[in-house]
Amino acid sequence: MAAQPEATQQIPPHPDESVGPLERGFAVLRALAAAPGGRLRPSELTKATGLARSTVDRVAATLAELGYLRAEGDGRDLVLAPSAAQPGNAYLRGCGLPGLLSPLAEELSARLDESVSLAVPDRESVRFILQIKRRRALAVAFRTGDALPAERCAPGAVFARSWGEAEFAAWRARLAEDPGYEGFPALPTHRPEKESVASFPRRIAAAAKSSCAEDDQLIEKGLIALAVPVFDGSRDAVCALSVVSHTSRQTVKSLREAALPALLATAKAMGERLAAARTPEPEDQDFDGDADDPTAAAKEQFGPEYLQSLARGISVLSMLGEGGPRGLTLSEAAAATGLPRATARRSLLTSVRQGYVETDGHRFRILPRVLELGYARLSQLTIGELAQPHLERVVRTVHESASMAVLDGEDIRYVARAAAGRIMSVDIMIGTRFPAFATSMGRVLLADQAVSERERFLESARIRPLTRRTVTDQAELLRILDGVAEDGYALVDQELEEGLRSMAVAVRDPRGAAVAAVNVSMHAARTSSAEARASVLPVLADAAAAISADLALLSGPTSGG
After folding, report:
1. Whole-angstrom distance, CA of residue 356 vs CA of residue 458
2. Residue whose C-alpha is closest to residue 140's, from 125, 149, 153
């Protein structure tokens, strides 16, 4: 991995070169990301951004076409959609840190039985790019993409060791402009501003002396942390490795005694891994110069309401991750997106002005601040929340109830549900559990396991008749699961309950493993098995593929070594 440039040349665009629709698109995404639930009405967006209502409508329509937001509540609410994670994914992929370092972070978290995080500098703040959480009732961790003020967290003192006067001036200006930390929504209500600011120089000096910084309840009462720098051979820290605990478990002193040796050893191993992955100074990459402009067809289809310059700007920004830690040249960005050099240049310089890209005058590199465009908000969504709009779309199409479930021991457990508005419908609540062996979603999830795992499951599970149609013979169940694995779906006919027929398809993670299943439940008198295969299965398969795609967008870069 290449070191971060020691200095970059910020090139503010000439007013004539700024791409106004792109700037306005960023403003809309920032407003939605900061809103409760990532949701605002168009009138609220107008107020939050200062844009005219007609402008908000055009920007929203373009972002919706790109999949970055969607309309809900009969079109009254605009909500961030998973595709808005693409610029954030571009940064995470480009910097390479999560993919390279997450295995070491996971090992450290397991060894210490504490939450572990990686953070990177973001001007005078700190932004988290990896979270390894411990499963306990009192969790202490932030969302990937969240930003904290440098003076309010342990990694901030680590990074501030290398600040110059320009960085300190920017820090003082931020304190003056935002004394209440309104620009940091991840901060809880407990805000010891004076204490954290007054002690910051002392903590910077301590970090410079000991290569370790402490957070003794600066963020929130009860929360403590230690952070150490991670170097890849360059002068400045590439990232900071932190271990986070709670005063109910540790004091700062006991955490230092218990965790610091392992923390330093892991940081050293991370630096060695980064140095080994460092690539030579790159030649220009060979991108296909005949790539098609991805926005041309949409512009032709949607006409003047479609803001092509906004779509082009986002495509250029998201492509920068393909250049790795050093980014792309202007020629590479233009070739990769199929855009004219002049168009790509205006988009890149607008992103520089907005703080999402930096340039050394030759190469353009995406910055962690791009994570504020919705990634932190979207990264906290559960798989059930991801599935909900897709399940609702299934219900609107087939007019039957749709659900999502995960495997939980011998049972399936419902995590999402969209009910059809019928007088006679299947009444199931989120959290409901049913025996996996007799349900369509259970069989889909069991069929994804190895044959030996299926056999062990059926040997240990309580197999019993639930209706006169329930299959309880182990050999027959194994044969059925073989068929489900081959067919890619399961159809269960009145085995769980008389009169209930259901069909299910797997939802898969980026590695292809079935992590959940979605189904449609039907009354047997209304829909035959043949009708379900013909009319329900294609809709259900499309929904499962769409949920899997959303899950991949929010999974970030895969772990790697």
Report:
1. 53
2. 153
